[in-house]
């Protein structure tokens, strides 16, 4: 009798266990350039973000969620692969900190494994809608070696590049004025030099062979025309909308983008509601030029920037409503984050149109400063993850790779180091501390800072080896280009390194005196961790450096006959 009762109990429990073992849907929402100080649930009381705040109430809010880089391409490569950019060659170099055009040979290496590729092998339908910015092609414009569909995604609708000021014709050109001036000034200098050589040749006071003059003429003309075409046609070269491998709009109409992203996200969810699916909505908001549809212009207290944030919050709400309407909320892990900190430099000529990183120092493109790498991070999964919970432990955008791989039934690659950790034990309250003992904060290939979670004292320490060199007007303006430099005369070398107790001083205002015994104890532990970390690094091809990040006409996406690249195949959108 007892055996019969036990078997009946197992039979009754079986459907519950089967339901619990069902693979969850994965919804990843990433905003571009959103500062942690721009969101209501992280302390902002002047910009309305009710839908993002709702996610935090219904899930877990991470207060030390860290990006692997303070700029787009390296951070996003780390997010997709769970690996520091220094391991994949996506670190950048000098001023080339991100991919600079869509028509470059650099990009996320084909031998890297993304979470989309892992989950696709586990039977997931995988889609990305919005921004990619991790390369397109390698050797020809249609080999698509870096394209999302060759990195595990079944469906792509969005821009292969990123938003730039040129995408909105009323905005100033994206190329730094100082660099453009060098190109334009070199033209007259070249012409005067050439005319002098020709005149000297005719008047016989310069003995230069004609073949050298012809060579100078040819190469000078090619040089000037290369940069002129590359820069002056940014609108057509890079403001592109694609659907899978097909160009839909060139140049794209920004006024339609919010509606198109929402439509595509809802359509993907509806098509795949029987699951499981992985949907990565990579918003074009709130990157400059802060394009905002007319319905949201003038609605916020912070001009166009605030309008942009409130519009993307509405977009988040529309997607969440679609999950609710399809009855998927209880079987969907929803994740919300920004790719790095807010952009403090603002728009050229409009310094008030910039992000906020709250109490944290620095912002986008500012190395290892907290404001550049500490971002909003929220996870929701009703019945699995507790609601209205705050976790103040170090976590990383790279953790999503490991987390969703395990939830989807996949296995982590064994032939490479995976830096991301499984978030589920921490967010479910099964462990008291983060799995990250140390985090390494790079600016291109330079290690700017290191974070150490000392669990014995419940303290987060941070060592700074370099810091950006700011102009006198403060931490929102760097020497050099629009983004801070990572080395040379654009940084401050800290000898000895600066040490901060982030648990007591999250704003990084009060370094620990270097003559204290505590300073030396912490520094020794961190430097041992750095030495071990360095021993795990191996040379890889640099994707964002040199010729890999130079505009290549052979790789230019073109809807039509190059260079007459123009089309609009979505006129009814």
Short description:
The protein has about 575 residues and is of the alpha/beta class.
Topology, please?
Elements: H1 2-20, E1 25-31, H2 50-57, E2 60-66, H3 72-81, H4 85-88, H5 115-121, E3 125-131, E4 155-159, H6 177-202, H7 210-232, H8 234-238, E5 241-243, E6 246-250, H9 257-271, E7 277-282, H10 303-325, E8 332-338, H11 370-373, E9 374-380, E10 389-396, H12 399-407, H13 424-427, E11 438-443, E12 446-454, E13 459-468, E14 491-501, H14 517-535, E15 567-568
Parallel strand pairs: 1-7, 1-8, 2-10, 3-4, 3-7
Antiparallel strand pairs: 2-9, 4-5, 5-6, 6-15, 8-9, 11-12, 12-13, 13-14
Helix pairs in contact: 6-7, 9-10
Description of the structure:
- Helices cover 31% and strands 17% of the residues.
- It has 573 residues and is of the alpha/beta class.
- The protein is built from 14 helices and 15 strands.
- It has 2 domains: 22-163 and 240-433 and 539-555, Alkaline Phosphatase, subunit A, CATH 3.40.720; 169-238.
- It has an 11-stranded mixed sheet with strand order 10-2-9-8-1-7-3-4-5-6-15, sandwiched between helices. It has a 4-stranded antiparallel sheet with strand order 11-12-13-14, with helices on one face.
Pick out its properties:
disordered N terminus; Alkaline Phosphatase, subunit A; four-stranded antiparallel sheet; alpha/beta; 2 domains; 573 residues; eleven-stranded mixed sheet
Give the low-confidence spans. Answer: 1-20
> How much beta, percentage-wise?
15-25%
Largest beta sheet: strand ordering: 10-2-9-8-1-7-3-4-5-6-15
Average pLDDT taken over every residue: 89
Radius of gyration: 25 Å
Q: Biggest sheet: strands, sense, closure?
A: 11 strands, mixed
Number of helices: 14
What is the name of the CATH superfamily of the largest domain?
Answer: Alkaline Phosphatase, subunit A
**Strand pairing plus helix content: what structural class?**
alpha/beta
> What is the helical fraction, as a range of percent?
25-40%
- Write the CATH architecture name of the largest domain: 3-Layer(aba) Sandwich
CATH topology descriptor of the largest domain: Alkaline Phosphatase, subunit A
Tell me, what is the CATH class of the largest domain? Alpha Beta
Write down the domain tally. 2
């Amino acid at each position: 009798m007892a055996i019969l009762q036990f078997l009946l109990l197992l039979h009754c429990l079986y459907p519950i266990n089967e339901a619990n073992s069902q693979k969850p849907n994965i919804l990843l929402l990433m905003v571009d350039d959103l500062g942690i100080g721009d969101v209501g649930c992280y302390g902002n009381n002047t910009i309305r973000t009710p839908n993002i705040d709702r996610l935090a109430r219904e899930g877990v809010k991470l207060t030390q969620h860290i990006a692997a880089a303070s700029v787009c391409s390296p951070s996003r490569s780390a997010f997709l692969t769970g690996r520091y950019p220094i391991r994949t060659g996506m670190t950048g170099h000098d001023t080339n900190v991100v991919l600079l055009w869509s028509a470059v040979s650099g990009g996320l290496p084909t031998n890297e494994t993304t979470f989309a590729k892992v989950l696709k092998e586990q039977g997931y339908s995988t889609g990305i809608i919005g921004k990619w910015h991790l390369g397109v092609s390698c050797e020809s414009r249609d080999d698509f070696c870096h394209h999302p569909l060759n990195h595990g995604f079944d469906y792509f609708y969005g821009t292969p590049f990123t938003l730039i000021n040129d995408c909105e014709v009323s905005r100033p050109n994206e190329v730094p004025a100082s660099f453009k001036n060098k190109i334009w000034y070199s033209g007259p200098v070249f012409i005067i030099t050439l005319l002098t050589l020709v005149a000297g040749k005719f008047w016989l006071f310069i003995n230069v062979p004609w073949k050298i003059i012809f060579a100078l003429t040819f190469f000078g003309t090619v040089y000037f025309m290369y940069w002129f075409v590359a820069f002056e046609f940014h609108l057509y070269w890079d403001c592109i909308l694609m659907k899978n491998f097909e160009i839909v709009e060139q140049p794209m109409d920004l006024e339609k983008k919010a509606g198109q992203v929402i439509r595509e996200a809802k359509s993907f969810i509806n098509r795949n509601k029987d699951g499981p699916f992985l949907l990565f909505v990579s918003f074009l908001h709130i990157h400059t030029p802060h394009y905002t549809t007319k319905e949201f212009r003038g609605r916020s207290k912070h001009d166009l920037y605030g309008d942009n944030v409130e519009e993307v919050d509405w977009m988040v709400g529309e997607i969440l409503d679609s999950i609710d309407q399809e009855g998927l909320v209880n079987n969907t892990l929803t994740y919300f984050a920004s790719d790095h900190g807010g952009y403090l430099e603002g728009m050229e000529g409009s310094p008030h149109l910039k992000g906020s990183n709250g109490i944290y120092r620095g912002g986008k493109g500012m190395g290892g400063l907290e404001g550049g790498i500490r971002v909003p991070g929220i996870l929701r999964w009703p019945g699995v993850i507790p609601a209205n919970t705050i976790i103040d432990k170090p976590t990383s955008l790279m953790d999503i790779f490991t987390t969703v791989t395990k939830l989807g039934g996949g296995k982590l690659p064994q032939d490479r180091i995976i830096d991301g950790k499984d978030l589920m034990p921490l967010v479910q309250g099964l462990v008291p501390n983060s799995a990250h003992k140390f985090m390494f904060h790079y600016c291109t290939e330079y290690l700017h800072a290191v974070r150490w979670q000392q669990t014995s004292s419940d303290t987060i320490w941070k060592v700074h080896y370099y810091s950006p060199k700011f102009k006198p007007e403060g931490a929102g303006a760097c020497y050099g280009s629009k983004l801070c430099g990572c080395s040379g005369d654009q940084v401050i070398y800290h000898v000895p390194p600066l040490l901060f107790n982030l648990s007591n001083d999250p704003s990084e205002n009060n370094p620990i005196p270097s003559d204290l015994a505590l300073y030396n104890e912490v520094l020794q532990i961190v430097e041992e961790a750095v030495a071990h970390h360095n021993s795990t690094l191996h040379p890889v091809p640099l994707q964002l450096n040199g010729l890999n990040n130079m505009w290549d006409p052979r790789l230019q996406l073109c809807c039509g006959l190059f260079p007459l690249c123009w089309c609009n195949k979505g006129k009814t959108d």
